[in-house]
Fold each of these.
Amino acid sequence: MAQALDIDRWNLECEFNNLDHRTDLNGADRLIVRRGQPFNISLYLRSGTYQPGVSSLDCVVETGPQPSEQYGTKASFGLTANIDTSRWSAAVISPPGDMAALSICSAPDAPIGRYTLTLGQSGRIEFILLFNPWCPGDAVYMDNEQHLAEYVLSQDGIIFRGSNKHPIPSAWNFGQFESGILDICLRILDTNPKCLRNPGKDCSGRRNPIYISRVLSAMVNCNDDDKGLLLGKWTDGYEGGVSPLSWKGSVEILRNWDKQACQPVRFGQCWVFAAVACSISRALGIPCRVVTNYLSAHDNNSDLVIQQVIDENGKLIKSREMIWNYHCWVENWMSRPDFKPDFNGWQASDPTPQEKSEGVYCCGPIPVRAIKEGELTSKYDAPFVFAEVNADVITTMRKKDGSTSKVTNTTAVGQKISTKSVGSDAREDITHLYKYPEGSDEERDAFKKANHQNKLLQQQENQGLHLTIKVTPDMRKGCDFDVFAVVTNNTQSEKKCRLVFGSCAVSYSGVMGKNCGFKDLLNVELSPGAERRVPLRLNYSKYGDRLTEDNLIRLAALLIDSNKDATLAVRNIVLDDPEIKVRILGEPKENRKLAAEITLKNPLPEPLENCCFSIEGANLTAGQVISERLSSSVGPGEDAKVKIYFTPTHSGLRKLVVDFDSNKLCHVKGYRNVIIGK
């Protein structure tokens, strides 16, 4: 007859289990394990000994406020001779005695979250269960140790901004293992409207990374009054909050939301939304990376066409459909049992609020492969993401008399789709994962499959006259420099044209600012085969106070020949901020105080006031932002210099992320990789 084990006390062996389950960076004060992988606890018996085949133990595991075996949020199981990794199971792995080493394994598709495990009559333990990308039975399984180190365990990374001609790397502290962050991530799940409406069904849904990705896409923004994390703002200053450019990591944002009783943190823009979603995904165990798409289309009517209207000076007349200089989203790695097998892998998910999906501001997850193949019936939001990287651009010129004419526009959306390389800070170009080469047969086929009229192959382009914009390599904020409209006459006859060449400040989301320089040449004469370079001088005195925080200037050249045929060339340029130099003073070791000596040279022809440096870094600054303000102004050509002290808590390669802010030079970014010794 079976005899129930009489348990006196137990040891959860948190240090061993958390290390074995790769959750040790969350600390060793509680049990945090991954699904589909056994963990061991020590049971000390009050009376009797464990006897194989004789001793019994009834185990009941529960999660969520309404545990139910029907929903998969409750499971009952007893002792078996061996662990079964395909379902909840338990086995004693020690010899007979008054201490029993109990091995427990969760099902590889169990819902993630907080669990209570009842052992017989007297034992009740609590633990947290996460996704397990190391487990072949888990939907997020990833069979590559280097990729797992990058996309799950790495606490910092690089996000690319700037422009398609000049991608600029910016360091970010994801900080998914910092103190309290996992609890905040679980609170986000518990706060989502689906959980509040039907907690039992929502907790059951947490077995599925597709469901979790969709919940996070909605909860990282607050546009649905759903206690979401971040409020987006793209225009008119940041009163009542901070500029999105001031953030260096996700930790402060997540903690602020938690401290403010789930009130949205002000303010975010696309790279902030994406970075925070990446932090939460990695914290929960879903492999994740941030992706940047340059010249990203926002198509709000699902016709896969961006309609733009310009005036006779080449200036864009306001439109709801925009081309963003860049746009960031995330990719989560998972299988898609709802699709054919080659749609497993990276899934695009976008937490920036743009359009509603099933009545909620969220987007994805959609298989990246489905975008490449033009499979637009795929869930979720395939047409929107397809348009971001593939939409056609049709430009019309509206004349003063109200008439319109079609303009040839060489803009191609979806350029240099970028993410951080595995194991290095280099940029990896992943455009080929989203689209076939521009103009290729496969790209045409994907477009036909997307049920869209054939892309206008620029056949109507005036092949006789060619227009491009060229720039000088050194365009730094504070300098005066030239940009050039280059007109080439490829015909056998002489041409006389009008050339309008203008510049204006622009935000990365495409909102136009004030004019920074303009030229209108009525009689540009070109003999057959000739080329003409027309310079436009951009002076700091003119553009300096007109730039947005994005440091972007839109150049537009409009060429109108004697037949009234018009060609438009557009190029966004990004002005380089000065370099931040970081020198580490002292030997970098765990729990040893270090100093960072940080220097920035003022490149502007005017003094900088209210200068402030701030730093943060995973396992370097204890999850805090450390700031140092300069007491005096910094003159033209002078160095702003500070020393900031910090104490690393863990060994390994870490990123110290730096921000410089002042009245005239806002949120200049820098970072330094530091190897911390044991």
Amino acid sequence: MENKNTKLLNKQLIIEAIVASFTKLNPKVQIKNFVIFLVELGAIATTLVVFYELFSGSFSGFNLQITIWLWFTVLFANFSEAIAEGRGKAQADSLRKNRTETKAKLFDGKSKVTEINATELKKGNLVVCEAGDIIPSDGEVVEGIASVDESAITGESAPVIRESGGDRSAVTGGTKVISDRIVIRITAEQGDTFIDRMISLVEGASRQKTPNEIALSMLLVGLTIIFILAVVTLPAFFGYGLAASGLPASSNLSLTILIALLVCLIPTTIGGLLSAIGISGMDRLLRRNVIATSGRAIEAAGDVDVLLLDKTGTITLGNRMATDFIPAEGITSEELAIAAQLSSLSDETPEGRSIVVLAKEKYGLRAQNIHANDITFIPFTAQSRMSGVDIKSANGSIREIRKGSTLAIKKYVQQKDGFMPKAVEDVVEELARMGATPLVVAEGDKVLGVIHLKDIVKGGIKQRFAQLRAMGIRTVMVTGDNPLTAAAIAAEAGVDDFIAEAKPEDKLNRIRTEQANGRLVGMIGDGTNDAPALAQADVGIAMNSGTQAAREAGNMVDLDSNPTKLIEVVEVGKQLLMTRGSLTTFSIANDVSKYFAIIPAITTILYAKSGGEGPLSALNIMHLSTPESAILSAVIFNAIIIILLIPLALRGVAYKPMSANAILSRNILIYGLGGLIVPFIGIKLIDMVISMF
């Protein structure tokens, strides 16, 4: 997408976020974040105190400073959320630029074509799109095949093929037909197209709090209530200490100090960053060209225990490639290569082209010089399971060369009174056991040998699976191959398990079995037959190039249609959960430190003789200058730390595959210990600056 490389922060984004920080002060908006809403109420209360003092002639600069920094705390928390939302809106604006008011060629299904505005289209309408036309809305190709430019959606400049009747039939509004002609059935109402949903999601308008967020919010509310009770009881205890010290009751804690204490002690840091963390998680996924229909799906990805991956295109390159020619007894490798190349001259499949290339690379064979009138190509059919060529020689005889499956070629040569040599059958069996695909070549009644076709496992995929294993995720390969072939490829790829000769119901049953055992399952698919499994899986990623049924069944859509994207989705989900956990740990540790920094400092006057320092001053281990300086320093630190943590909330905590115990230990060591130490350093530095003035 255009914005894939957008900077984390830019001038325009910051300006818009500053404006939004003030608009979010509306109590109806602010109350959605209870912790920050409480800070806003405190700021309002201290503001009233300042105005009262101003008009009564007892103005306090301390109260004014506390008030200013309380408002900054609220604004900084709003700013963090606005920054995250602003990045999403920037992406939405980019998507809107791709939505053009286009004309649609409404088709009556027979011959009549009427040009109308795209906005007038309804679900079920048929439209015709030809080369150069913008596809007016989401739909499925019901007739024809065409090359489509989807760069407006995916950012990928290379056109893709969309055709009727297969798993590549879905088209998206706003993309452009490059060649040929297709008829599309509209599958979305206006305002509910794929791009409309994308815009709504990235703007955050449809974003609901996830179960984890709700649970964490309840925890924060609980902690806040505890601290409210603690702060409310402080004047009574402090008053008792004042009376015992012989100090006047007027020296008791003021409303402003109590509010400042409360704001410092409640978890304002995570309260201010929680929403930004959730929004930025969806944003990071979108930057990988994956649309999640909910934050719940991203979180589920972070907790996935089992991944079901299709073999073809995910684990392997998807195209079997010729890697060797194995001749039968009495036949040279070059003779076999020549026959194999001749039989593949008209074969436009990747396998056929790889045979021609291998013969050229291995033996220097060039395309054969045969007159068109002397050659007849035999195309592959599902019934014959073989293809080949008939070549008429100068004396009128015909060379019949065929290549195909073992059973097909065996039957072919037997019909010509030939036979399949035992040595060739042994080679075929050995190749199948290795996970390869054998193609047998014959000329007339004589078997010439075997072409070794191999489904190439993607480079680096074994290392990726090892990473997943380190995360505690088990991988299951799903394939239609026979068990021998499936086992060989599974071993080479390094997956933990496999399902051979898999049918749609096998995928569904496996997912249900894993879920019944308490596991969260991820699945990726693109066909209508994948829809039940995608719908059942906790994380179902549908390919954008797949069918409408698949896209609607999944809770994520990969715009790049890259099957290996599931691994990245899991990493993003885990990074989201880690970021939230890390910053929550930091925030709570932060509050503990601020408690031990502030409370001792404000009690130094108790039990003191002649207004000096009392015995409780020994608890002021930070040696903060005065009680007022201690409180003001803590309030300033409390506001500033939110701003300092915004980049981390947006970028996310760096994720490395490791066990849950290792992650917890690292979390406590870095963010727990850091949350305890940083406030002591920060508050002391701010106190030193305040003391200078």
Amino acid sequence: MSEQVALLKEKGNVALQEGKFDEAITFYTQAIELDSSNHVLYSNRSAAYAKSGKYLQALEDAEKTVSLKPDWGKGYSRKGSALAYLGRFDESVKAYEKGLQHDPKNEQLKNGLADVRAQKTASLSNPFNSPDIFMKLANDPRTQKFLSDPDYLKLLQELRTNPQSLGTRLQDTRVLTTLSVLLGMSADMEEPMETEPMNPPEPPKPKPEPKPEKKEEDSLPPEKRKALEEKKLGNDAYKKKNFEEALKHYNTAVELDSTEIVYLLNIAAVYFEQKEYEKCISQCENAIEVGRENRADFKLIAKALARIGHAYKKMENWKQAKIYYEKSMSEHRTPEIKTLLSDIDKIIREQERKAYIDPVKAEEEKELGNQKYKSGDYPGAIKHYSEAILRNPDEPKYYSNRAACYTKLTAFDLGLKDCEKIVELDPKFIKGWIRKGKILQAMQQQGKALTAYQKAVELDPQNSEALEGYRSCAVSASSNPEEVRKRAMADPEVQSILRDPAMRLILEQMQSDPRALQDHLKNPDIAAKLQKLLESGLIAIH
């Protein structure tokens, strides 16, 4: 049973890495049915559920993981992540904190805790942007009926994307009720609100003659107007790459209006262009602090966080860049930052992969794998061979050994995948071609198996294993009924081969002297034609 569980887990891991989340869930579920006390299986399935957007199921599996292995940090990380996706930020924080009690140095738990705290802050600044907003509204009788109204849904979307519009919407009783539900106020806490304007509307007056449009700046205090003028001057200098002049104007704008985040962000942009990345980061942090104090648009906060990410990216501090891109995404999601985050993830994974490479340890793992293989413990061998591959991913023999284990466990699809990797790394690795041929034969893919054995014979015409595989595969290919022969004779390529005088002589020679086959297979053109005839069933080799 343990072999079957290990194999299903491996298949689940492969599917998860390839983004086939439903497949991964199926494999992990089958493994759990065989071993319901394995905490790793629940943890992996929790990850698969989360990636497929099934957060409640992800939480259930995470809680099961923690109950089975209370001192394992990753279980708490899974639980914290699932709770955060569900918008249950306080519970998520507690899960991460409890995990850190068991594993204080766990970076995944530390980063998760920082991210969920940032998400919680973002949701508090705009309750309409809470991830679980629809769940809360659907579960409360006061707002449940509103969700069937398309106008109400449009109103919600406006408040989610533009929280500044809340002030103009407070006369709508639905908004006040929604706000009460989102802030956790019970029905008996609500007080009657004015639903009509305090002053009755005046009767309509004749429209006056249109006056020249008054600019918004004209209604601002003198200091703010002057600050805007300085910003414009700074922008002009920035476009001309006169950065010192731009800094002068932007700093003056800040002196005149210290509550405006935009001026601080512009200063940070100048530092970024000047490659003063530490100054850029410091300025962005100041901008975020000022922005939060003055309830700035969350998009500007996101912009500041993204710019910190850009600075860290330029400094090749990939992990810090990732943290700030994720924080930016928690404020406001954009395709550009999502793409950057994906790129950073790839760089971090590649760095971690390279840092993990150690050919000496790879050989040690291979030897441990060999011992497990000899004792018949194929899942155990796979574990060590997989570790050897991680330690030295460019060595084909480790994939070959693991493919042998997969073959023993009849996991031909995984074995074939390893064989493809072998011949990609080293096209002259003859054992890779032979192993590929055997797996394809077992999968009843005789034509492809012939091609694999053919490659092996080309590399070593004397290799008995390759020749035997080629012959046995050819016999299987030629044992089809007469109907196959009729279809073959209708093939123009087959007809052309049979009309070739040289090929007719070769076929006659092979009938009188079967050993001549080895000499003819050395010629790629002749070998290809013989293979075509074998596949068609017109000739057989015994």
Amino acid sequence: MNKLKSFIISLAAIIIIVMMAATFVENSKGTAFAQTHIYSSLWFVIAWAILAVVSFIYMLKHRLFRRISVWMVHMAFLIILLGALTSWLTSKSGDVYLRQGVPSKELVLKDKTIEQLDFTLKLKDFKVINYPGTDAPMDYVSEITADNEPVNISMNNIGQYQGYRFTQAGYDEDMKGTHLGVYYDPYGIAITYIGYFILFVALLNMLISKRTNMRRFYHLAVDQQAAKTLLLTILLAMPAFLSPVQAQELRKVDNQIADDFGKICVLYNSRICPINTVATTFVTKLSGKPSWNGMTANQIFCGWVFDVANWENAKMIEVKSKEAQEVLGITGKWASFSDFWNQYNEYKLDKPLKEAYRSGNKELQKNLRDADEKFNIIRMLYNGELLRMYPYTDKNGNITWLAPGEKNVHGYLPPKEWYFVRKSMDYLAESIIMNNEDRAKTLISKIYDYQHIRGEKVIPSQTAIYAELTYNVINTLRWPIILYLTVALLAVIASTIRLNDRKRKIQTIISTSLAGIMLLQTTIVIGLRWYISGHLPISNGYETMQFLAWSVLLITLLLRKRFSIILHYGPLLAAFALLVAMITDSNPQLTQLMPVLQSPLLSVHVMVIMFSYALFGLMALIGIQGIIAHIRKDTALESKLAALSQFLLYPAVALIAVGIFIGAIWANVSWGKYWSWDAKETWALITMLIYAAPLHNDIRWMHKPLHIHIYMLIAFLSVLMTYFGVNYFLPGMHSYA
């Protein structure tokens, strides 16, 4: 039994080391090399198979089936491995190339051999869907037929026919041809999904069962001293665990960094503007005003970009409709992004909106549409539509703007520039999260310089950028308009009262001064807007109201001596016009809303994974305290802290396991493959396996509290590698931390 156990531990350690090395091999030799010589190689598959078989034998000899929860967990992993083996044996992948009017059955496999499909494919139409008013592609759509049955394929929607899964991979310049990735896995996916389901049920049962070691560790750990230690650790290290609804607990980005970030330009609403403009509109749209809880628009926008998990729970989204409030299940008018999802990760407004449109209930449509629009604006940020910040010139000489992490242009960019486009925002996020202000400022400066070098022909001048920043500040000031309206209204009231000459003169001075100040501000706003846009700003309701106010004020001042009544009512009318303009701008339409591109599974995946990382971080800090207790020879505290770490280990491992398989389901739904050995997902698997080891009581080395503390501290290096290291050193599809 001991030899069998030692063999399992040794083989598992070897596989973990191989996976670690493989991620670096991929970085130096390329993805294709790593896939062919390691991940998809016969020896690597055999190693996993031997580990699975020997583990199953050990489980039987150890009569693990007497502990149903533990048995189910291990069986689930074996079933998942069986699914992976089935995929390796029975699946195939390749490419299909189609031209309009040319039927094809040819499937080019990965080894470049050609296989004939059992059905005929035809390209009916291919189109590029651009962002409104720009040449930036939002999606690529292939409409094909398989034996005359329609199949629609896009970058975010796989097509399926007879077990084959089609993904959009490329297209011809003349829009008459398309390249499709093809995956065929009729059995492996189903088996793997069964394993995921069993794993979820088993982990849930293990966490709530009274017959697992988790309960024993709980009773050992939770006494007064250990509870105080846990509370102190949480208070010091995990402020994000406190209720995210409390606004003061949100991370506030340094104002200077936020302002510098706001000067970076993006392609937005068919023009190039500083991020500050996007941030101002974004925040105003969500909360009804350009600032919130003492934070500027730049700080709030930085929070949504760099600290998503916390801001998704911030109650800053104004939902005015009672119907929408009821659907979201909120009390009052303030909602968080998380409130838009139910417990099944379904968008709460989806069905009510569809029913409202189906029934023709226009009032309900209107009441729900505002909340739906705000939800989709956040999704637009997630999709990268609000952060197209890297200019590059394609082979036709057209300048296109890329979002952070863009992957589809490496053929046009030198490797270093491509890497910069993919990774600079990741590094900036890490710098801000780690409060490395100097590094953050340097990265912002590099992005700013990159824009002015690569987008020299189209990037606004520094004067234009500062003009727009100034415009955004002045234009978002609300209190002056309210003050103007109040003073103007009082002046009108005063004009109806009998006043002596002295008081009447004072009233005239006040009204004249008010009209002059209002005219000055309105002139500055219109002038700046004219300069920024390049045309006279009278093209929409907001601009016409501004121009109306300016005209009224100008006439008032020109005719004030001859027609004194104008001096009383002119400022009031202008103030109302400015008020209407302000109300219009408090709920702006950023752009035409497009279909949601991201799956909610992605948000759940990231949140679950990050929560597990947080617990691993707690355990590392507890490990440090445990080592200190050992040095001080405080054996009782050392043992209690070890029990506390082992107790936290159960939910932490469960969360990372669930997070990994949710991510796999999301990848399968989005890209047609549930596992691709991407560096980020590989290291997440490594982290899970490393932390799963201490859960096995028959590893005697783990029986000593000091060893537990040392192991938890060292194991946290795998979390750091997964969260930060992959972004710095390794390639992959995951551009987020």
